[in-house]
Amino acid sequence: MSSIEGRHPDRNLINMPMKQNLVKEKHDASLHLISRDFETCIDVCQKALHVLSSTVDLQQASDHQEEMEEFIVIIVQAYAELDRWQEVLPCITQHYSGIENVSPNVLKVCLLLHAKVQEFSTCSALYNIWTSSREGREVNDSDLEMLLDIYVTQTLLQAGKSSQITEVVQSSQLSQDTKERLIATYSELVRETQLAEETASTTALPDLAHPQNIVDRVVAKGLRALRMMLMWIWSVRPRLSTRTLYSLGGLATLLIIATQGFDTSNRTLEILGNLMEHFIRSKR
Q1: For a tag site, which of 50, 78, 218, 262 has the least CB within 10 Å?
Q2: Which of 159, 58, 52, 71 is closest to 114 using CA atoms?
Q3: In whole angstroms, what is the distance from residue 148 CA to residue 165 CA?
Q4: In this structure, what are the phi and psi dihedrals at residue 13, rounded to the nearest 5 degrees?
Q5: For every residue of the chain, which 3-state class applies, written as one string?
Q6: Dist. CA 32–CA 247, nearest whole Å
Q7: Cβ(154)–Cβ(111) under 8 Å?
Q8: What is the CA radius of gyration of the chain?
Q9: CA separation for the pair 284, 272 (Å, rounded)
Q10: What is the pLDDT of residues 241-284, one digit of tens each?
């Protein structure tokens, strides 16, 4: 008899036939998920979860919780692929009798899913319900820190609620040293995020926001118009002297210098050069 059976003689671990059946169903569900047969995957998981959640004498068995977790993770992925994320919480609460009873790994999946679809208020509700239910109860610090990190980085920061981070960290059940370390880490992360946003907003400004860019565009349009005019004159007066063409080109050059100074853009010079080269070749 195993040590767990010895401590709980009235509760058995999952018996071998059931265990083998669950292993097979988990394997089948994973294959359906990989092959993108999501509906069948959900059906297989639902049946297995129903067996696990309805077997009262298995509720405290250690391998019972592990089996529940694995099927929940698979079924959540299937719902997400079908864009039926609204069905995830009803499914979980049905088998766990409330979000406060789920394991840290199951809550992790829920937080990540709802953050991905930007249901930040739901993430906050899930995290607060679960952490409140853990007050006065022993919880692994690594699990607490993992969930806190997901909530801060995927919910509070993404929702623009960085001002709440310190309060959330301080209200956790982590040690004071850990809280101070996390607050320092998140403060730096907030600064980096704000700097990145400011940089992105600056570089995202349209070209016309800079006066010199306005001049560049006006001059370029003017040169294109001049080229069209010269082409028209050449078609009407094919014997027009090269001197006249150079005079018009010089006029365009003066226009560039007057509006931009001698530090003209490469694009503008290229347009002017192509313009004169075209008519010199045409004259020949």
Answers
A1: 262
A2: 159
A3: 10
A4: -65, 170
A5: CCHHHHHCCCCCCCCHHHHHHHHHHHHHHHHHHHCCCHHHHHHHHHHHHHHHHHCHHHCCCHHHHHHHHHHHHHHHHHHHHCCCHHHHHHHHHHHHCCHHHCCHHHHHHHHHHHHHCCCHHHHHHHHHHHHHHCCCCCCCHHHHHHHHHHHHHHHHCCCCCHHHHHHHHHCCCCCHHHHHHHHHHHHHHHHHHHHHHHHHHHHCCCHHHCHHHHHHHHHHHHHHHHHHHHHHHHHHCCCCCHHHHHHHHHHHHHHHHHHHCCCCCHHHHHHHHHHHHHHHHHHC
A6: 77
A7: yes
A8: 35
A9: 19
A10: 455 655 665 666 656 556 555 554 455 555 556 655 655 555 45
| Encoded tokens for 85 | 């994320």
> In this structure, what token pair is assigned to residue 237?
């007066």
Tokens of residue 184, six digits: 């320092």
